[in-house]
Amino acid sequence: MNILITSIGQKTNLAKYFRRALANEGGGQVLGADSNSSVLGKHFVDKFIRSPDSDSQGYANWLLNVIEAHEIRLVVPTRDGELSTLSSLVEVAWSRSRCRILVPASETLHYCLDKSRFSQWCHENNFKQPNPLSFHTLKEADVPFIIKPRTGSGAKDIKVVHDWDEWCEIQPVSDKKYIVQEYVQHSPEYSIDLFVDWHGEIKSVVPRIRLSVSRGETIHGRVDLDAEIIEQSSRLARTLGLVGHNTIQCFKRDSAVLFTEVNARYGGGFTLGVESGADTPRFIVREVLGKDIHFNRDQLVDQLEMVRIQKDIFTSGTTRRKVYCFDLDGTLCTESCTYEEAKPIQLMIDKVNRLYGQGHEIVIATARGASSGISWRTLIEEQLNAWGVQYHRLVTDKPFADYYIDNKSIDVLEFI
């Protein structure tokens, strides 16, 4: 099974978790596409493809051709600006290539992509929200209030007005492009990772407090399995017709849940929900493969915290010869299957072969047969040959090495 992540940008974690899901469910490749060929995400996928802009005339045909050429079974959008285009291609992608596009119907996006429409929808469907205000009737008593673009994501162009004189200086602001609401203070803000399967059944809901935010994304968060937030966000998802992984934003003021927006896609802080127990990338992969989703909500880790930090990764083509010892199962190939059915993890094999080509010594270590006494050497050698792995030795113990690369002890994606 192959997956395409569109507008990959810097969304390295999304690639990481979908690659992990594929490794646990029989293998496959994660491809990334972006109109910018210099994005960081290109280094963290199995294959990168330069795409046209999603609003260009040729984008639809380009995407359908990529789906067919690379046998893509799932397309994962990541940017609001492409959701409408991709929603229009759901039926043709399925009929032509049996490919799922992870996006809701256009009727749902009508409200998700416009904060003004979403505010009106909340009013009509009895969902609470921060008090909507009108540009034409604003008065000093309304301070503080917040001004947001009707469309777009992150914190771009959002303005909090704390002083009436300040507001008088920045006018005029067009009510056709912006909305204005009361500014909610002294109440925790939440992002909710909510997953809905293809049949409309809600599988997981993970509210997380946004303790610290940068550029609209959570960089410090904590899981808080608040019963009222779970109930109200589930009702919202059913009423709105959401599907797949969604990121819902709200405040909790006393006992009231105040909804502000719905992102019908993965948000930047989704990893906290996954690590708390709701592994939605794996849910999606299992669904596409026709497998049941096994998930017990009681297994979610409440109060789990996450801090996102910047991390530097260094590479060099001029280092001295070193010994690299690679574990086999889970590092070079998939491990949640029989040995005979193991599939290569191509991005890691490419890395091994680059190190081999640079003159380093490559050792493959395996524990296959350690308990049973069965020798798997012949099969392993055949597999390594078929996968094109370049190496010097295959061993069943842990030899001396400068580096030991094992998926159980390091982040393999960062090593790649």
TrEMBL record:
Q: Name one Pfam family in it.
A: PylC-like_N
- Indicate whether ATP-binding appears among the record's keywords: yes
User: From which domain of life does this come?
Assistant: Bacteria
Q: Which UniProt keywords apply?
A: ATP-binding, Nucleotide-binding
InterPro entries noted in UniProt:
ATP-grasp, ATP_grasp_subdomain_1, HAD-like_sf, HAD_sf, PylC_N
Q: Where is the ATP-grasp domain?
A: 110-289
> What are the protein's GO molecular function terms?
ATP binding; catalytic activity; metal ion binding
Q: Does the keyword Nucleotide-binding apply?
A: yes
| Name this polypeptide is given | CarB protein
Organism annotation: Oleiphilus messinensis
